[in-house]
Amino acid sequence: MNHFQYRGGVLCAEEVSLAAIAATVGTPFYCYSSATLERHYRVFADALPKESLVAFSVKANGNLAVLKTLAALGAGADVVSGGEMKKALAAGIPATRIVFSGVGKTKTEMAAALKAGIYQFNVESEPELLALNDVAGSLGAKASIAFRVNPDVDALTHAKISTGHAETKFGVPWSRVTDAYALAATLANIAVCGIDVHIGSQITELSPFAAAFKRVVALSKSLRAAGHDISRIDLGGGLGVPYRNDNIPPPDPAAYGALAAEVAKETGARLIFEPGRMIVANAGLLVTRVIYAKEGENRHFLIVDAGMNDLIRPAMYDAYHEIVAVAEPQVNAPWTRYDVVGPVCETSDIFGSERALPVLKADDLVAILAAGAYGAVMASAYNARPLAPEVLVKGPEWAVVRPRMDDDALYASDRIPPWLG
């Protein structure tokens, strides 16, 4: 469920007209609904065993206003860089609710996280473990860790967002898990506290989770038998969302929560979750304006002012996003099929092919739905296109929570060397 509906003939975010926002901030722009963020967080959190830590995946959407909205509900943060950790802290998320994941943590990032007092490091390799031990030792600290274990489970999702099978870069291979924990137990500045598993993203079936969770339960028992303190289990994220109206909906969070409850029952451990997409994807959309309606040889094109630099998912993952007109289509209005494309000089700058839409013309607005996750956070200034603004709505109120980058800011980081005068 989301809070984007037609009101008075125009698509609105909660009680605010998207056309009115466009008239003020220009296009393209991202818009997020506070009510949807709050509802999705509560539905997910309420389905889980009590005392679970819900650590929102900052990589899905790192806007400070979004993070602060979730922090007010009790969310923690799952971060994969020092910059994401700083954002989470700036948004008011306590360090004691922050989990640091990622395959390439630097010693500088490790030191910053230790000084901040984060809850846990999810360690992904033995070399990282040794580096963390050295950094903690230099600070007179002890790092609480869980190994991210690779259970070699097929997540049944897109290859580029599947992380739990043996061929990916993520996690400690299953065959080396026991040795990795044994090594950690010998290190003076490491405190083993748990297990972490994350098998991928946009998972729409429960069976991959069930398979991974079963392996983790068995592992927790064997590690405890070997003398390790396994008091926490991080079950990751990855629960999918409906990107298209004709899809079979992904599993209900209650069904996912029931699977997790079995893990808690079997192990007695505190559970940690890292939801991202299922909290923010359908809480956001990208509004863009038609520049031209172009007739091709055999196709109709809508050339819009948003590009793959603003929303790269369709180009990178062949991702599907529903596209709708901001002006509510009139009964009996003529419709046609368009390829909705951006202005970026790349053939892959396509948001959707053969999409059924009312007949549109230059200056009409369209909205690309379910763009709240991996949208603005993955945007770039490719083709020297300044980053689009982000807007947050709450009821009848709205605010720009990241302004549009201006040309001066776009060029400001460039430097001319002395020999070019």
The H-level CATH homologous superfamily of the largest domain, spelled out, is Alanine racemase
CATH 2nd-level architecture of the largest domain: Alpha-Beta Barrel
How many separate domains make up the residues? 2
Low-confidence stretches: 155-166
- Which class best fits the helix and strand makeup? alpha/beta
Distance, first to last CA: 57 Å
- Reported by name, the CATH topology of the largest domain is TIM Barrel
Whole-number mean pLDDT: 93
Shape: globular
Major β-sheet, in short?
Answer: 9 strands, mixed
Q: Using DSSP, what is the number of strands?
A: 21
Give the helices and strands, then pairings:
Elements: E1 4-7, E2 10-13, E3 16-17, H1 18-25, E4 29-33, H2 34-46, E5 53-57, H3 64-71, E6 76-79, H4 82-90, E7 98-100, H5 107-116, E8 120-123, H6 126-139, E9 143-150, E10 172-173, H7 177-185, E11 190-196, H8 207-225, E12 232-234, H9 253-267, E13 270-273, H10 277-280, E14 284-295, E15 300-304, H11 313-317, E16 323-325, E17 335-341, E18 350-358, E19 365-368, E20 390-394, E21 397-402, H12 407-412
Parallel strand pairs: 4-20, 5-6, 5-13, 6-7, 7-8, 8-9, 9-10, 9-11, 11-12, 12-13, 15-17
Antiparallel strand pairs: 1-2, 2-3, 4-14, 14-15, 14-19, 16-19, 17-18, 20-21
Helix pairs in contact: 5-6, 8-9
